[in-house]
Specification:
The protein has 138 residues and is mainly α. It has 5 helices and 2 strands, in the order ββααααα. Strand 1 and strand 2 form a beta hairpin.
């Protein structure tokens, strides 16, 4: 970040990168649905729906902190066990909150989407931890 006279400005590339990520996610959702409906077996769209919920939550559920942990571990000389403990606590907290929200929304959906949504809600904290862990081992 760039500081000028007490004002923090975000570099212009960050907004473009976020927009490109959003377009990529939307494209993957659309292509998954089209492929599942066009050539996939019956019910494949439900599986893709559940997987997309998990992957989407894991990608955005860290709120960018997964990259920050790597920076702190490298700069502050914090032992990896401490970083792993922080990752477990953060993924439990973030994953728990996101899982409760997904579960609450899933209970309002039609019956055929209810089970994939519940399964996705159970998997979200583990997927978020995997994202943190992936940053720790690189």
């Amino acid at each position: 970040m760039i500081r000028r006279r007490g004002v923090v400005k975000v570099p212009s590339g960050v907004g473009k990168l976020l927009a490109l990520q959003a377009v990529g996610f939307l494209a993957s959702i659309v292509t998954s649905v089209v492929i599942a409906r066009g050539i996939g077996p019956e019910g494949k769209g439900l599986v893709d729906y559940g997987l997309l919920l998990v992957f989407f939550a894991a990608e955005f559920g860290t709120f960018g902190i997964a990259s920050g942990i790597v920076y702190v571990l490298g700069r502050e000389r914090v032992p990896p066990a401490v970083g792993n403990g922080v990752a477990i606590r953060l993924s439990s907290a973030f994953g728990g909150v996101i899982a409760v929200v997904v579960l609450a929304l899933g209970l309002t959906l039609a019956d055929e989407y209810r089970i994939p949504t519940i399964l996705a809600a159970v998997c979200i904290p583990f997927a978020i931890y995997r994202t943190f862990w992936g940053g720790l081992v690189t």
